[in-house]
C-alpha cells in the first residue's frame, strides 16, 4: 500500500471519539418526547411560567389595592391616628365627684361650681415674662400673699436678677466651683444667703407678685396651676377672661368644691377631698400613683371619700394638644358615680344634737372630773346597716367649754365594756355545761387567797340565770368561769384553773365579734386590747367584761348577734351605687346594691340564745336597764359599768381609777327594728355620784328612732 492509499484510508476511517458522541446524541431524549400523562416537557414549563406570571400580577394588584385603600380611602382616619401618636393628649385637672345621699335619698354632699383663675405655662415663655405677668395679675386681683416666705421672695428676686445674683459669688468660690469642690446647689445656697438686703426692700406689691410667681411655677410645668379659686369676684373673672390673649397662659374656668348640705353633721365620716393646690398628699402618693393618678389630682383623703374613691371619682375631660399649642376636645368629662349610704340623716342630726347637749351639760355634774366624751351607734340588727353613729367630746380651754366631733373613735377607740358582755359570758356557761337554763347559784363575795374580795354591786343570795342578767350579778359569772376552768373554789384559798378556759371564753366572744375586726367599710378600724395573763383572777375579770377591751362598733356587732337570733353580721355604710345620670334624672343605672353579709353564727342551741334574749328583756322591763330604751319597754338590753385607769398628770403612767358606763339594747323584743350602743368612758370617779348621761342619751335616741319610723 502506497502512502497515498494509506492517507485516504485514515481520513475515511471513523474516529472512536466522534463515534461515541454520535451514539450519545442518538440516545438523548428530545423536547417533543411525551411524558406519561401525554404532555410534553415544553408544555409543562410553559404552563408553570404562566401560573407564576398570574401570581405576580395578583400580588401587584393586592399591593396596589392596599395602598389605594390606605392612602386614598382611609387617609383622614390615619392622619388622625398619626396626629394622636405625635401630638400630646392631656386631661383636665379635675372632674366633679359623685354625689352622696342618705338611705332616704336626701342629698348630703354635692359639688358647687367655683370660679377659678389658673395659669398654664405656654411654650417659649421666659422667666422674665412670667415675672411681668405676676406683677400684672397682682395689680388686678386680690390675693392673700401672707404665706409668701423669705425663700420664695429670694427665688423671685433670683429669677429676675440672675446676672446680678451671680456676681455675689467671689472669685475664690468660683475657683472652688471650677475645681468641683462646690456644686450648683452650693452656689445657689450662697447666693440666697446674700439676698436679705434685697428682699427687705420689697413692698407689698413685690411680695404679692412673688407669691403669684410661686403659684405659677408650683408642681409640674405642664399642669394647670390654680392662682385663685375662692372668692373670685365677677370683675376679676371678667378681667382674666377678656385678656386671655395678652395674659400668656392665664385663663378662667368653673371648677368645683364639695358642699355639705347638712353642715358638719356626719362630716367626719363622710371624709374629705384634697384641694386644688394640695393634690395628692404625700402619705397617699404611692397608693394613688399605682392606680394611675397624677400628683396634682384631687382625691378622697379620708373615710368614705377615700374608701369609695373608685366610685366617686369623676372622669376627666381629655384634650389633644395640637402643634400650634391649641387644644382639641377628645372626650368630655363626666361626674363620678353617686353613692347612697345606710345613714338616716334626720336621725343622725338629732343624735348629734342630743350628744352635744348631754356631753356638754354632763361635764358640770358631780363625778365627771375626767369624763369628756360619749359614743352612740344605731343599726339595723337584721342587716348590719348603720343607721346613725356619732361621738362627741367636750374640751376646756381658758375656762370655756366647747364641743368637737369624735365619731371616728367608734371604730378606733377600744374601751373596757363591763357587764354589757355578760350575754356572751352566759353563753360560755351554757355551751360547756357550767350551767343550764334556770340554774341557781348563790351570789356572795368571792375571796381568793392574797386578792381583794370580788363581789357583785350588792349581795343577791340564791339567784337563777335570768335574775343574774336582770340585776347584773358578777358572782354568778365568777362561778360559771370557775366551773368552765375546772376549778374548786374555797373561801380565802388558792384557786387553780385550767388555762384553756381563756380560749373557751375568747372563742365564744369572737362568735359575737368581740375581739375581732368587724369589717366595717371604713379605711381604719382598731382591734382592741387582748390580755396575755392566764391568772385565775383575770379569768374572773374577763367573764364580767373587765379585762379585754372592745370598740363601740364591736359592741354593736355583739348586740346585733343577740338581737337577730345568733348571726354575726358585717356592719356597713354603703347601701347603693348609681352611675351619674345623662338625661337629667336623679340617678343613672344601679351598679351596686349591698347585701347582708353573715360572717358567722353562734355555736350554741337556739334555746340558749332565746334564754339570753329573755334575760336581756327582763333587764329593760324591770331590771337595771329600765328607762334606757325610752318609752319602749318592749325592748331588751344590758347595762354595764367597768373600772378603768387613766393618766391625769401626763407622766405616761395611769394613776386614777374611773368608771366607764355602757348600754347595749334593741327593740322590739320579738322582731327588732333597731339596736343601740352607748358608751361613756371615764364618766365618774369611785365614791362619787354617777352621772346618768348614758341613760339619757339612749332614751332620747330610741324615742326619736320610733318617731321617725
What class would the helix/strand composition place it in?
alpha+beta
The outline comes out as extended
Do you know the CATH topology of the domain at 352-566 and 602-708?
A: Beta-lactamase
* CATH homologous superfamily placement of the domain at 352-566 and 602-708: DD-peptidase/beta-lactamase superfamily
Helix run count = 26
What is the end-to-end distance? 154 Å
CATH architecture of the domain at 352-566 and 602-708: 3-Layer(aba) Sandwich
> Can you give the helix content as a percent range?
25-40%
**Fraction of residues in β-strands:** 15-25%
Topology, number of strands: 20
Uncertain regions spanning at least 5 consecutive residues? 20-26
Largest β-sheet summary: 7 strands, mixed
Mean pLDDT: 87
Rg (C-alpha, Å) = 43 Å
- The level 1 CATH classification of the domain at 352-566 and 602-708 is Alpha Beta
Amino acid at each position: 500500500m502506497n502512502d497515498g492509499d494509506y492517507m485516504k484510508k485514515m481520513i475515511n476511517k471513523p474516529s472512536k471519539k466522534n463515534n461515541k458522541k454520535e451514539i450519545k446524541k442518538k440516545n438523548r431524549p428530545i423536547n417533543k418526547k411525551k411524558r406519561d400523562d401525554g404532555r410534553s416537557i415544553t408544555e409543562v414549563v410553559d404552563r408553570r411560567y404562566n401560573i407564576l406570571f398570574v401570581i405576580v400580577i395578583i400580588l401587584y394588584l393586592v399591593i396596589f389595592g392596599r395602598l389605594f385603600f390606605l392612602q386614598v380611602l382611609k387617609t383622614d382616619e390615619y392622619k388622625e391616628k398619626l396626629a394622636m401618636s405625635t401630638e400630646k393628649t392631656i386631661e383636665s385637672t379635675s372632674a366633679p365627684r359623685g354625689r352622696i345621699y342618705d338611705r332616704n335619698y336626701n342629698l348630703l354632699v354635692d359639688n358647687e361650681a367655683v370660679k377659678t383663675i389658673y395659669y398654664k405655662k405656654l411654650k417659649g415663655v421666659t422667666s422674665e415674662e412670667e415675672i411681668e405677668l405676676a406683677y400684672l395679675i397682682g395689680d388686678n386681683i386680690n390675693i392673700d400673699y401672707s404665706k409668701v416666705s423669705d425663700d420664695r421672695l429670694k427665688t423671685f428676686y433670683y429669677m429676675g436678677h440672675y446676672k446680678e445674683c451671680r456676681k455675689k459669688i467671689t472669685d475664690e468660690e468660683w475657683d472652688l466651683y471650677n475645681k468641683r469642690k462646690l456644686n450648683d446647689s452650693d452656689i445657689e445656697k450662697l447666693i440666697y444667703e446674700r439676698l436679705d438686703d434685697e428682699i427687705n426692700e420689697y413692698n407689698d406689691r413685690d411680695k404679692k407678685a412673688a407669691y403669684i410667681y410661686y403659684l405659677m411655677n408650683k408642681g409640674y410645668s405642664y399642669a394647670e396651676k390654680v392662682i385663685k379659686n375662692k372668692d373670685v369676684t365677677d370683675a376679676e373673672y371678667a378681667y382674666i377672661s377678656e385678656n386671655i390673649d395678652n395674659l400668656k397662659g392665664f385663663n378662667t374656668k368653673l371648677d368645683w368644691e364639695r358642699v355639705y348640705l347638712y353642715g358638719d353633721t356626719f362630716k367626719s365620716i363622710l371624709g374629705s377631698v384634697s384641694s386644688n393646690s394640695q393634690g395628692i398628699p404625700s402619705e397617699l402618693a404611692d397608693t394613688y400613683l399605682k392606680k394611675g393618678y397624677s400628683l396634682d389630682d384631687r382625691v378622697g383623703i379620708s373615710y368614705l371619700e377615700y374608701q369609695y374613691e373608685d366610685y366617686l371619682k369623676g372622669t376627666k375631660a381629655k384634650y389633644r394638644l395640637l402643634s400650634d399649642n391649641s387644644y382639641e376636645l377628645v372626650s368630655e368629662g363626666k361626674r363620678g358615680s353617686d353613692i347612697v349610704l345606710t345613714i338616716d340623716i334626720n336621725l343622725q342630726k338629732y343624735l348629734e344634737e342630743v350628744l352635744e347637749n348631754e356631753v356638754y351639760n354632763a361635764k358640770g355634774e358631780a363625778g365627771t372630773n375626767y369624763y369628756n366624751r360619749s359614743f352612740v351607734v344605731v343599726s339595723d340588727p337584721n342587716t348590719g346597716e348603720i343607721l346613725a353613729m356619732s361621738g362627741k367630746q367636750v374640751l376646756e380651754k381658758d375656762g370655756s367649754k366647747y364641743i368637737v366631733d369624735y365619731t371616728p373613735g367608734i371604730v378606733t377607740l377600744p374601751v373596757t365594756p363591763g357587764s354589757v358582755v355578760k350575754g356572751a359570758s352566759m353563753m360560755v356557761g351554757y355551751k360547756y355545761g357550767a350551767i343550764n337554763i334556770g340554774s341557781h347559784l348563790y351570789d356572795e363575795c368571792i375571796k381568793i387567797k392574797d386578792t381583794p374580795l370580788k363581789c357583785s354591786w350588792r349581795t343577791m343570795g340564791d339567784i337563777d340565770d335570768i335574775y343574774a342578767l336582770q340585776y347584773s350579778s358578777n358572782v354568778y359569772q365568777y362561778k360559771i368561769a370557775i366551773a368552765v376552768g375546772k376549778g374548786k373554789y374555797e373561801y380565802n384559798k388558792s384557786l387553780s384553773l385550767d388555762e384553756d378556759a381563756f380560749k373557751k371564753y375568747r372563742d365564744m366572744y369572737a362568735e359575737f365579734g368581740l375581739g375581732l375586726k368587724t369589717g366595717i367599710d371604713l379605711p381604719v378600724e382598731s382591734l382592741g386590747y387582748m390580755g396575755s395573763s392566764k391568772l385565775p383572777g383575770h379569768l374572773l375579770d374577763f367573764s364580767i367584761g373587765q379585762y379585754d377591751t372592745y370598740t363601740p362598733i364591736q359592741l354593736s356587732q355583739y348586740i346585733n348577734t343577740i338581737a337577730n337570733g345568733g348571726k354575726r353580721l358585717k356592719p356597713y355604710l354603703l347601701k347603693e351605687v348609681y352611675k351619674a345620670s345623662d338625661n337629667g334624672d336623679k340617678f343613672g343605672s344601679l351598679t351596686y346594691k349591698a347585701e347582708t353579709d353573715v360572717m358567722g353564727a353562734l355555736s350554741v342551741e337556739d334555746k340558749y340564745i332565746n334564754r339570753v334574749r329573755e334575760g336581756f328583756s327582763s333587764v329593760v322591763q324591770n331590771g337595771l336597764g329600765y328607762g334606757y330604751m325610752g318609752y319602749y319597754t318592749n325592748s331588751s338590753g344590758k347595762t354595764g359599768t367597768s373600772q378603768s385607769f387613766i393618766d391625769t398628770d401626763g407622766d405616761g403612767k395611769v394613776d386614777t381609777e374611773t368608771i366607764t358606763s355602757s348600754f347595749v339594747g334593741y327593740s322590739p323584743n320579738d322582731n327588732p327594728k333597731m339596736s343601740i350602743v352607748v358608751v361613756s368612758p371615764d364618766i365618774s370617779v369611785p365614791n362619787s355620784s354617777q352621772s346618768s348621761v348614758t341613760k339619757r342619751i339612749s332614751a332620747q335616741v330610741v324615742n326619736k328612732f320610733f318617731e321617725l319610723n
